[in-house]
Amino acid sequence: MAKFLVILDVDSTLIENEVIELLAARSGSESEVTEITNRAMNGELDFEQSLRARVATLAGLPVSVIDESRRDIRVTHGARELIATVVAAGGRVGAVSGGFHELLDPLAQELGLDYARANRLEVVDGKLTGRLTGAVIDAQAKADALREWAIDSGTPLSATVAVGDGANDLEMMKVAALSVGITAKPIVRATADVHIDTRDLSALLPLLGLRG
Q1: CA distances from 19 to 69, 84, 185, 193 (A)
Q2: Which of 54, 137, 191, 211 has the fewest CB atoms within 10 Å, counting from its CB?
Q3: How many helices and strands, by DSSP H and E, does the chain display?
């Protein structure tokens, strides 16, 4: 049985970036995408509709932009310490993202995450089509992932923690025993059990009794 199961949102939580904006910077649609992202994370837009609208702006980009964007990712301060400490204490750590597997999977391997789930970009003839494949990872899917990984790791929901910053994280925060916002949007600040105002994920460790 895992001592804790910590589930992290990815964009602006586990990492400092919004990966859709990294990709959009290569298509010239960054300002449009940033505006849509901000409205979605504030709960003003339906997440799936907003995601599909943002991904549509990437149509025609060569698949090489994924590797280029990956190099721009900056892991949030304290993330490596948090993950290593939780795992050393017998816990598990997962990341669930409204972003994309193509960028998350290498990061998950690098950081030693136990679980990772995200959306998938459709590629045809070496180019992004501006569409997704498979089910969309929305707020409900994030909550479902937390429940699924709790069962898989043998962790009771009473020992689960959800960390995020936007409206898409609210459902998994409702399921978790402890919800933590990190420099979050107002809608998350208003509902999270705890809020961290600094960009330092190791600040979670005292909450778990893993650091004084």
Answers
A1: 7, 24, 18, 27
A2: 211
A3: 9, 7
Q: What is the mean pLDDT of residues 84-105?
A: 96
Q: Is 180 left (phi over 0), alpha (psi -120 to 50) or beta?
A: beta
CATH number, residue 187: 3.40.50.1000
Alpha-carbon distances, residue 115 vs 94, 153, 171, 210 (angstroms)? 4, 10, 18, 21
Strand partners, 163: 8, 180
Residue 211 inside a domain? The answer is no
pTM: 0.94
Give 64: exposed, middle or buried? Use CB within 10 Å, 0-12, 13-18, 19+.
Answer: exposed
d(CA 173, CA 7): 9
What pLDDT was estimated at residue 43? Answer: 87
- The rounded distance, in Å, linking the Cα atoms of 166 and 188 is 6
